């Protein structure tokens, strides 16, 4: 040890203590650890608390030693002795007694050493020794010392969070005990010790109103991390979190947390949807979060989905354009989960229009129809009577009567199907686009099907005169009754005298008419297949051409993109429709 250090510490010579600052740092660097050990012995003596001279000597020597350590960057060399002196202070009283607010002698030593040690938070070897001791200081009740310790530990958590992770319990208890500065440490240690923080999550969330704004932000950050990694842990805290939505500084962050919680536990937010809607109405920028929560809750059941859809559709027609994409995504998610809410026409609605207002009106109409349908489910549906035709006088027997009744049932079924198709054609959400070739094929097919239906109906009328019903052949499955409303009245109005009969008085065989109808339908189908094959060949040729000229097309597109002016250089010509048409023509390239 240096001679001057030996004299000052050995003899407690306060008069020579000031001379230590006249020495060069490198001159005393080698003896700093020895000096620290001797200071530790002096501070642990029984009369140290009452000996002002010894306290003054120790204070001056510690200041000189810590200065030399910083100047020579020798903290790693002397860290064992320095941490040893620091830890010895824990064996003594650190809290002021009575009305005296001055720090105790050992609290002063601890404060002087704390900054010297923890300023080296980026040095692993020092932190391994210092962190366990620093955590113990948090539990000693000295508020000022704990506050300073918290500041340094927060920095240490950024650089070496692993060293603090094993002390998560002590740090959390210190926060709950009134040391909120350590809240900034918890987000760093949470990924390594989540269960420890989960045990205290309710108490941590409840202390939000007691915190200042910076401390609230650290706690919100912790809650956000929990919501991202373990959202179910926050399900019991939903009432508290909803209560914090009134604080403008926390509203957006808390809503984001509730969105994550709703994905994992939607039932926990059902009773808070009215509050969330009110928050969204007060600030339209938050409606995106509110919409996501409603969508998550709607997944629970079809009833919840219907209620959520009504709210989302009401927003679609009134909110600004930036929110429409989010709303449509959430509406699509619900309608995909419960297709019957829109009667299976959801895709048609989305495809019909680029106007969000029009989509909102169509969705609202379908929701109203769906609600009305559910209301009528429990009502008894009247049974439609099935009229029976009497058997012929000349004798058709039970066989003929049964065939007639079977035909009447089939006619009634066809009429009901036609009625349903007629309603669907009148509905705006089921509009179809037909190409000219499709229209021609459908017209040809309808003529063939009409012949078959006409033949069947004629046979049903002839059965009244006693003809045998065994000649009736079953209706082909591919016959559609599109022309039945035109054909059936004509047949019914025709007088019996106008019906053509054969030379022996019997009616034209139904089987022959049906055969002609089937052959006609077969020819129509074969033509349709040929036309479809031609269209596929044409599409194949187009595909091959595009594939072989892909590089040319790509170069052309690049050149066109370069020629598109920036928005500031665009000129709207004529009206908005002209501008939009130009825009889409360029985009289509």
Automatic annotation (TrEMBL):
Residues 373-537 are annotated as: Disordered. It is a peripheral membrane protein. The keyword Membrane applies. One of its GO terms (biological process) is regulation of signal transduction. Keywords: Membrane. The keyword Membrane applies. Residues 413-422, 516-537 have a biased composition (Basic and acidic residues). It is found in: Endomembrane system. PANTHER family: VENTRICULAR ZONE-EXPRESSED PH DOMAIN-CONTAINING PROTEIN HOMOLOG 1, VEPH-A/MELTED. This is Ventricular zone expressed PH domain protein. It comes from Solea senegalensis.
